[in-house]
Design goal:
With 644 residues, this protein is an alpha+beta fold. It contains twelve helices and 26 strands.
Length: 644
């Protein structure tokens, strides 16, 4: 009670004295000095979430009001990009600390600064540096909460330092970082784009290198590694559509820009580009379009080559639908069409020999009797007899004869899809990116699958007959000018080879006839008592009995209706066989006269060790046609080659 009364009286007395002084009591006038305390921070602070209320008592035991603090470090710089600092200079990093709990700057508060990371300024890789913090521990100013941290740039240029500022006394306060980029001169920016005359989509993983200007374009190539120590900067673009930006290159210098691009089908360098003397201006972002050019693979050399030619479409197309031996003969002037017709008849003969024989007899008898009567009779019994002949030849004739038709049918499939082996010689690359090539065919592979087990592991090679054509050079029946084919090819898009249209004197019909006569027929009849046969005509009279055939059902029918005799039928049979197989031989031989194979093609070159020398030619495709007098027919094929 006394304490309260004492305080009240003291306050009243002090108020009265101040009023009298202000009003000039007793004639005395005094100036009143108002003192504004400085905006000083507090050191003993705790963030609000961690505040613990403390109670202190004065002599009278009255508690103090607890204080709350929330600190934040603010770096008074643009942190969007590294700050540029010249070598051998000092730069002040300005850090301000705010006390949001007291709503004022935090003065007399210890901040700590240190370099926490060092990277190369261009590529971003870890690096070494000699910069340092001049005053790593510093109190904030008591009035504005600011600490000026001295960053000494050191002597090494092209380095980025990460400086971290924290408050050691309060580790829960978030630290702040700033990037300091040290250069001797300010840096410039370079934006690169790319152009390519070839197929843009085929380029990938495009490396762009920034090199010192002393590296000239003529010293850089696809097969040489770029010196690691010389690379100032490098970037990778995934495709030609991706631009690359070098954010900071030392300005007021010239550089060489070198580019390597990979291909979609190769691990080797498919294209390169180079630009010398690129000047980088400080504080400017410049644009540069890099022209890329295909790396030139060198295909010159000797190769082992395998070629396939598929003539099945040609035979069907140029023969012109349903045929018979007489319609082939009547084809007349177009040798190419006539040969196709004969080949089709050969294929049909091996598949259904009875039909071929009966059609031949029918067409010859028409010359004597007339088409209407013969067609009427043929429509009644022709197919029946044809089926009987086919059945007998394929199923009831002597074993060697049945084998002949089985192998012959397979043989026709083989010769309409030839597999040839050759030496391929390609000359040196010309300045216009073309090469001259020549196939020297020396071998042919025939596959007779008769008797092979399809389930056997060696089925693919079963029945292989490897014909070395050099062994047949002395045989006048062999088509000599089949042995060589010349072409010109253009090289493009790094690994593409395009064969220009060229002609090959491919004596296809003569080659087929040679294989049938000297390989198939001679091989099948080599143990015959009469000795080996060498032509279809010679063979046919060994196994077709025209006399017995005429004495059969058809001869009886012809005599019964009075349009012929058995003798006439026998002679017709012999004439038909002679005409059929004699004409076939003539047709096939005639093909060598004026029929050529015209081809275009394409392929892909492979460089396995990236030395720019072609090791393999793969995915080769032929497209062409056999050109006759008045018609042409499609031929397709493929090829591949391996360097010797």
């Amino acid at each position: 009670m006394k304490s309260r009364l004492f305080k009240f009286l003291t306050a009243a007395l002090l108020g009265t004295l101040m009023a009298l002084s202000a009003c000039g009591g007793d004639g005395f006038t005094a100036d009143v000095e108002i003192w504004y305390p400085e905006d000083e921070g507090r050191i003993d602070t705790i963030p609000p979430e961690d505040v613990v209320e403390e109670t202190t008592r004065d002599e009278g035991g009255t508690p103090d009001i607890p204080e709350k603090h929330l600190y934040e470090i603010i770096l008074l710089h643009d942190l969007a990009a590294p700050l540029d600092v010249r070598v051998n200079t000092s730069f002040p990093i300005i850090a301000k600390v705010i006390d949001y709990g007291m709503n004022q700057p935090a003065g007399d508060l210890m901040v700590h600064a240190e370099i926490t990371n060092i990277n190369d300024a261009v590529n971003g890789n870890p690096a070494n540096g000699d910069a340092f913090i001049e005053n790593p521990n510093l109190l904030t100013n008591s009035t504005d909460g600011i600490a000026r941290i001295g960053f000494n740039a050191g002597t090494l240029e092209g380095v980025i330092y990460e400086v971290t500022v924290s408050i050691p006394e309060f580790p829960d306060v978030a630290s702040k970082t700033i990037l300091m980029r040290v250069f001797d001169i300010p840096c410039g920016c370079l934006r690169t784009s790319m152009s390519y005359d070839g197929t843009i989509e085929m380029l990938r993983d495009i490396e762009v290198y920034i090199l010192p200007e002393q590296y000239r374009c003529n010293s850089l190539s696809a097969t040489r590694e770029v010196p690691e120590a010389a690379i100032i900067a490098s970037r990778t673009a995934s495709s030609m559509y991706s631009g690359i930006t070098f954010d900071c290159l030392p300005g007021e210098k010239r550089y060489t820009i070198f580019t390597k691009a990979g291909g979609t089908n190769s691990t080797c360098v498919a294209a390169t580009g180079c630009y010398e003397g690129m000047y980088i201006s400080p504080n400017v972002c410049q644009d540069l379009e890099l022209d890329l050019y295909s790396t030139v693979l060198n295909p010159a050399g000797a190769y082992d080559s395998i070629d396939h030619f598929d003539f099945r479409n040609m035979v069907k197309q140029c023969a012109g639908g349903e045929t018979s031996i007489m319609t082939c003969v009547a084809g007349g002037t177009d040798i190419g069409k006539t040969v196709c017709c004969a080949l089709q008849e050969m294929i049909k003969f091996f598949e259904t020999p009875g039909t071929t024989i009966m059609e031949g007899i029918r067409d010859i008898v028409k010359l004597w009797v007339g088409a209407i009567i013969v067609d009427t009779v043929y429509n009644l019994i022709g197919n029946i007899i044809a089926d009987w002949i086919t059945g007998w030849l394929r199923n009831s004739s002597p074993d060697w004869l049945q084998d002949f038709f089985d192998i012959g049918e397979d043989m026709m499939g083989t010769i309409t899809n030839l597999e040839l082996v050759s030496d391929l010689l390609i000359k040196k690359l010309n300045n216009d990116q073309t090469v001259q090539g020549t196939h020297y065919w020396y071998g042919m592979h025939l596959y007779w699958k008769f008797g092979c087990d399809p389930d056997a592991p060696d089925y693919d090679q079963c029945g292989l007959i490897d014909l070395n054509l050099a062994e047949y050079i002395d045989d006048p029946a062999f088509p000599l000018n089949f042995l060589e084919g010349k072409f010109t090819a253009a090289i493009s898009d790094f690994d593409k080879m395009y064969l220009n249209q060229h002609e090959i004197k491919l004596n296809y019909g003569k080659l087929v006839l040679y294989v049938i006569n000297e390989v198939v027929i001679a091989g099948l009849t080599k143990n015959s008592p009469e000795g080996p046969a060498h032509s279809m005509l010679e063979l046919v009279f060994r196994w077709i009995d025209c006399a017995g055939f005429a004495a059969g059902t058809l001869g009886d029918i012809l005599e019964a209706i009075g349009i012929g005799s058995q003798q006439d039928l026998e002679q017709a049979c012999r004439t038909t066989l002679t005409g059929l197989f004699g004409f076939v031989e003539a047709f096939l031989n005639a093909l060598a006269l004026d029929t050529t194979l015209s081809l275009t093609g394409s392929a892909r070159m492979m460089d396995k060790d990236c030395d720019l020398m072609v090791d393999q030619i793969i995915n080769g495709v032929y497209t062409g046609y056999i050109q006759g007098d008045t018609s042409q027919a499609l031929v397709t094929g493929d090829f591949e080659a391996t360097r010797k």
